[in-house]
Amino acid sequence: MYTSRDERLPPPKTQPFAVDLTTVLAGQELKSLRHKRNITVRKVEQASRRIADFKGDKEFSISNGWLAQLENGESKPSSAKLFSLSVIYHVNFWDLLRLYNIDVADKEKYGPVADPYLTQLTSGNSGVFCSHHSQCTSLLPQVDAEERNIIHGHLGWADLTMFPMIRPGALLKIDTRQNKLAPGEWRNEYERPIYFIELREAYACGWCELHGNQLLIIPHQSSPVRVRYFTYPREAEIAGRVIAYSTRCVEANESIA
Q: What class is the 21-102 domain?
């Protein structure tokens, strides 16, 4: 019998399944939850179908085969299917999301990551600000429980107000108790109070002066930014005084001679 060359070749190797540790661990936890509730995969399928019928959306339905893949870490659930599981297993939907490394409470922490040019208040810690590339000035919530009046901000990569004294990307430490302009004289620019200002839909950082009801945000004398005027306190409020900051000595793209 004639055998073609293709038939003599060994079968092609299949690509191995790429194991995602988070997905595997999440699947194991979902299986554990099902066992704790003493629910069979068949009951999960039936219950999810009732939910899908009630919602009028088949995406809420979970088949036996799909649940097996989910528990074996071979697939990830949609939000609809995860909702059905949270109902069937009597657990919080947000807790199931965390199994897949999605924590809604962390949403604000990633603001500077998503929009690196904006100055803003953001959740997280100082380590996050040392590594991300937010271009917006942002604010961090309290990091140290012992410093209840301290918040942290990130100077956006597009914010040149205090350049070169404070370069874009700097981490700012802000004392919220000092939210009024401090009168008095200063001997040099380093003694002059720097404030973190909350605007209507943004944040700013700079020296400030109050002329009547006009709040002036004063840039560094070497900065290309002009003085900005806001109606105080309707358009701008002082969140606090910058009491410390971490900034680069040179630009990140400057080459070393």
A: mainly alpha
